[in-house]
Specification:
The protein has about 210 residues and is of the alpha/beta class. The chain has one domain (about 15-195): Rossmann fold (3-Layer(aba) Sandwich), CATH 3.40.50. Helices cover about 25% and strands about 20% of the residues. It contains five helices and seven strands, in the order H-E-H-E-H-E-E-H-E-H-E-E. It has a seven-stranded mixed sheet with strand order 3-2-1-4-5-7-6, with helices on both faces. Helix 1 runs parallel beside helix 2 and helix 2 packs parallel to helix 3. The longest helix has 14 residues, at about 65-80. The radius of gyration is 16 Å and the shape is globular. The termini are far apart. Keywords: Methyltransferase, S-adenosyl-L-methionine, Transferase. It catalyses: L-glutaminyl-[peptide chain release factor] + S-adenosyl-L-methionine = N(5)-methyl-L-glutaminyl-[peptide chain release factor] + S-adenosyl-L-homocysteine + H(+). GO terms for molecular function: nucleic acid binding; peptide chain release factor N(5)-glutamine methyltransferase activity.
Length: about 210
């Protein structure tokens, strides 16, 4: 798809196609409910899913106004009239117990990451997540316990050295069937797990 890009959004990368592929491969295992894409940016992931999925609502969430404007254009052109765009911070604006799948390529670089100078043309807000780079990933994992339905699939793209940490976080929040897929260069890139029945609707884990 010839996506429009602009201020405030990442340039889509081939590695993110793996995130979409994994989502599509696991659709048949999911409960009823919508698909939520967090930090949609240009809307690339949401519209890619809309091209392939016809029987589920898709909600694309973005907090930055500049990115919202870009996403509106792409969703209008390629969303098949089924992608709802919501402005908000991660899952804060979403209702409890509504999602069958939550998918995201969130910021995952630490604020002192040595790769940042080479990415000066990309918006920092789409790249950097606190001191460790894991802050936004943990926020999403935690909030999925409230928004996800039993059996909800959480799919997360992350840095090529963060696989162990993301799997550990998913385990700490008692997700099950945790796996990681590698990118085109053989690096760990996409980790996922399923929300267990006893966790769905929870907002905090002990």
């Amino acid at each position: 798809m010839p996506l429009q890009l602009g201020e405030g959004v990442l340039i889509p990368r081939p590695d993110t196609e793996i995130l979409v592929e994994q989502a599509l491969a696991r659709l048949s295992t999911l409960p009823a409910g919508g698909i939520i894409e967090l930090g949609t940016g240009s809307g690339a992931i949401a519209v890619a899913l809309a091209q392939e999925i016809s029987d589920r609502a898709i909600i694309a969430v973005e907090c930055h106004t500049a990115a919202i404007k870009v996403a509106q254009g792409n969703i209008g052109r390629f969303g098949n009239g089924r992608v709802q765009l919501v402005q908000g911070s991660w899952l804060d604006a979403l209702a409890d117990d509504c999602a069958a799948m939550i998918i995201s390529n969130p910021p995952y670089l630490a604020n002192n990451d040595p790769h940042l100078p080479a990415l000066h043309y990309e918006p920092l807000s789409a790249l950097v997540s606190g001191q460790s780079g894991l802050e936004d990933l943990e926020t999403i994992i935690s909030a999925t316990c409230r928004v996800g339905r039993p059996g909800c699939l959480l799919l997360l793209e992350h840095g090529n050295e963060q696989g162990d940490a993301v799997r550990s976080l998913l385990g700490q929040y008692n997700f099950k069937h945790i796996q990681t897929e590698r990118d085109l260069a053989g690096h760990e890139r996409v980790s996922f797990g399923f929300l267990t029945t006893e966790l769905a609707g929870d907002t905090r884990q002990e």
